[in-house]
Amino acid sequence: MEECLSRRNFLGAAGAAAAAGAVPAAAAAQDAAKIKILGIASSLRKGKTTAAGVQACLDAAKAVAPDRIETELVELADLSIPAGPLVGIPLAAGQVDDFPKLAEKMADPKVAGIVVGSPVYMGTLSSLCKVFIERCLFFKKNNYGLSGKVVGAIAVGGARNGGQERVLQEIHAGLVTHEMVIVGEARPTSHFGGTLWNHWKDDISKDEDGLATVKNLGKQVAEVALRMAAK
Q1: Rounded to an integer, what distance in angstroms lies between the CA atom of residue 136 and that of residue 145?
Q2: Do 158 and 58 fall into the same domain?
Q3: What is the CATH number of the domain that holds 157?
Q4: Same domain assignment for residues 14 and 120
Q5: Is 80 exceeded by the pLDDT of residue 31?
Q6: pLDDT at residue number 199
Q7: Partner of 158 at 20 to 30 A CA spacing, among 15, 20, 102, 214?
Q8: Could you tell me the pLDDT band of residue 24, with boundaries at 50, 70 and 90?
Q9: What total of structural domains would you count in the chain?
Q10: pLDDT recorded at residue 189
């Protein structure tokens, strides 16, 4: 009887220990299944239409799988990203370079998707977006740190046809060489990316057609990123 009870106690203790070990293991597996989508707004004007457009895209991305996707918006207007370090020019006295911290955030394995947004300035990218893409050469020199990450683009213009598609293509061209997975919008719009019209004094909420493209882009980035992460 004592032997039987001892054996029963041992098995009970072993089962409890196994169950206790399974909890953190399950939690770790669940955490590993989560991904992050990073939004980068490159307008010189902080908190305006480009940031709002990128945030709308991130919100749509998160809605695809709220329990598995987290998002973060970064505004380049908050950062100092000089072009000089790209070609080995040292920083001037007192000059700050915030790109290394941003690069670390982008290269995080948890970041499976990136959305880059730019206003249309004189028919092309903003200066912040241009220098950001140029500084991303860092990743190619360091074992292609962005390889396999999904990327989508958003452009905000002062007219309905104000150069948005050209800007989207310039963002694509600058990042496709990193072995990133370039995506456009999801159905039913299925264009190059999100195209917004800043016609209502910095209020893009009235641009229903443009917001539809932005939300469909977020959906596509999220769905492709989840599939890539599953592999």
Answers
A1: 10
A2: yes
A3: 3.40.50.360
A4: no
A5: no
A6: 87
A7: 102
A8: low
A9: 2
A10: 87
Residues 76 and 1 both lie in one domain: no
Q: At residue 196, does pLDDT exceed 90?
A: yes
Same domain, 129 and 114: yes
26: its two tokens: 């399950």
Instruction: Considering only residues 200 and 101, tell me which one the structure prediction assigns the higher pLDDT.
Output: 101
60 and 1 both lie in a single domain: no
Question: Which amino acid appears at position 103 of this protein?
Answer: A
Task: Look up the domain containing 8 and give its range.
Answer: 1-32
Give the pLDDT of residue 200: 84
Which position has the token pair 């360091």?
Answer: 142
